[in-house]
Amino acid sequence: MKKMLLAKLKGCKKLVVMGIGNELKGDDAIGIYIVKKLMKHFNEDGEFVNIKNLYLINAGTVPDFFTDILKEINPTHILIIDCALMDKEVGEVKVIKEDEIINYSFSTHTLPLPIIIKYLRKFINAEMIILGIQPKIIDFCPISEEVKLSGDKLVDTLIEIIRELKLTE
């Protein structure tokens, strides 16, 4: 995963990591969980964090509310992390290509992810990277241990990548 993400982030000068999901619905919260762990690692807290050339956004169920902020930031790369029903093993992380996005079911947003991405494309010339994480359960419960473990591994990988890209220096 690290090698693939580094290839997708080649030439990254300004990165937005956006976590999407509903914290009340089990594994649907994994995108938010990951972004919050990144915020804590970089000693910041909140819904939106700017650390030099790294922007962390907890978009919850309303990623469309952040489109104006994204336009203002004008990042070179946007990494979107969300729970996605992909018929994979529980906790499996997959880079989903934009043209494949229609084939997967994403979490509970106000607007479907393909519409948000299509809108952003009109205003931002950024590399869009969508990471889907296969849930175990999407119900009123905590995140499953399997998905949380997968999220923790992804957080560690993202921290390594951010350091290698020198985005916070």
TrEMBL record:
GO MF, any single term: enzyme activator activity
InterPro entries: Pept_A31_hyd_mat_HycI, Pept_HybD-like_dom_sf, Peptidase_A31
Keyword field: Aspartyl protease, Hydrolase, Protease
Claim: Protease is one of the keywords in the record: yes
Top-level taxon of origin: Archaea
Alphabetical list of Pfam families matching this protein: HycI (PF01750)
Listed GO biological process terms: protein processing
Family: Belongs to the peptidase A31 family.
Protein name: Hydrogenase maturation protease HycI
Protein source organism: Methanocaldococcus fervens (strain DSM 4213 / JCM 15782 / AG86) (Methanococcus fervens)
